[in-house]
């Protein structure tokens, strides 16, 4: 086999296997998230060392879901704002987008990263939000 032909096949396989699959991020959205950092379009960052609220995100099989703000309590329960934001998930141009709609507004966020530990999204104003998985404080330990 010609070495150029072999190199071409290996290159295609390598880049094909590394191709971006944004749908894989969906499985990591579910859960409790707390804001860790916000990066503004000018590059400046604001770090959050303490949050009195967390976001809970839930996704259904029909590629819809909701996000609601919760206030953790020391007894392990949560106080809810009762204001949930409904969203629809769409894969567009190798990106995973969440389209939100409330009675007051509608907007889009693009998922840049979603793992079991971190969630990174960007909005239309080019503000990047980095979340970390929320771990509740257990006062019984």
Automatic annotation (TrEMBL):
PROSITE patterns, alphabetized: PROKAR_LIPOPROTEIN (PS51257)
Residue span, Lipocalin-like domain: 29-120
Pfam families hit by this protein: Lipocalin_4
Top-level taxonomic group: Bacteria
Protein name as it appears in the record: Lipocalin-like domain-containing protein
Species for this entry: Bizionia arctica
């Amino acid at each position: 086999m010609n070495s150029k032909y072999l190199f071409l096949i290996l290159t295609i396989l390598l880049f094909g296997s590394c191709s971006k699959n944004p749908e894989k991020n969906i499985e990591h959205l579910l859960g409790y998230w707390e804001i860790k950092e916000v990066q503004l379009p000018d590059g400046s960052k604001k770090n959050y060392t303490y949050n009195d609220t967390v976001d809970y995100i839930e996704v259904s099989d029909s590629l819809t879901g909701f996000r609601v703000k919760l206030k953790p309590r020391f007894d392990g329960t949560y106080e809810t704002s009762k204001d949930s934001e409904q969203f629809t998930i769409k894969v567009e141009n190798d990106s995973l987008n969440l389209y939100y709609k409330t009675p007051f507004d509608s907007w889009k966020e693009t998922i840049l990263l979603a793992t079991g530990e971190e969630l990174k999204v960007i909005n239309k104003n080019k503000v990047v939000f980095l979340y970390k998985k929320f771990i509740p404080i257990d006062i019984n330990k």
